[in-house]
Amino acid sequence: MADKDDDELNLPRAALNKMIKETLPNIRVANDARELVLNCCTEFIHLVSSEANDICNKQQKKTISPEHVLAALDSLGFVGYKEEAQCVLQDCKAVAAKRRRASTRLENLGIPEEELLRQQQELFAKARQEQAEVEQREWQQMQLQAQHVAAQSVPNKDNDSVDDDDDYS
């Protein structure tokens, strides 16, 4: 059970291995060294998050914000990390803003909502009309087929005009 709890509190090993391989592509890193890096990363995250939580509580806030994390890095003396974290934060904000802009493309078309609704209603009406026409053609086709079948099943009077009179002479 302790191993499971430890796994939940650690960074994923695959992510750490990928980071090591990308950072040091031509160097082989021993498993003990990987384990040490993993433990250091975990401890660093716990330290920064604990400090950010303390700062958040002092400000009587309930949610840790990026500013709390940056203040924690500053108060712990990780100014170099703080600058890098600010750059990453700006990148994340830019990506989030881009996603928001992409999701509001419809709003940015410049067409009022009433006009869009009117166009939608026109399209629905046109689709209903086309569907009704298709159904009408199908009905007419079925009627023609039924008439054709009925005409074939009725005995032909010309062929039946054979002398039905019995000759009793």
Number of strands: 0
Spell the H/E element sequence: HHHHHHH
Largest sheet, in brief, is:
none
| Quaternary form | single chain
What is the CATH first-level class name of the largest domain? Mainly Alpha
* Tally of structural domains: 2
How far apart, in Å, are the first and last alpha carbons?
A: 116 Å
Number of helices: 7
How would you describe the overall organization of this protein?
It is found in: Nucleus. It holds the Pfam family CBFD_NFYB_HMF. Belongs to the NC2 beta/DR1 family. By secondary structure, the protein is an all-alpha fold. The chain has 2 domains: 2-79, Histone, subunit A (Orthogonal Bundle), CATH 1.10.20.10; 111-152. Helices cover 75% and strands 0% of the residues. It contains 7 helices and no strands. α4 (66-75) packs antiparallel against α5 (79-103). The chain starts with a helix and ends in a 9-residue tail after the last helix. The relative contact order is 0.04.
Please sum up the structure shown:
With 169 residues, this protein is mainly alpha-helical. Helix content is 75%, strand content 0%. The longest helix has 41 residues, at 113-153.
Q: Secondary-structure map with pairings?
A:
Blueprint: H1 2-9, H2 13-23, H3 31-58, H4 66-75, H5 79-103, H6 113-153, H7 157-160
Helix pairs in contact: 3-4, 4-5
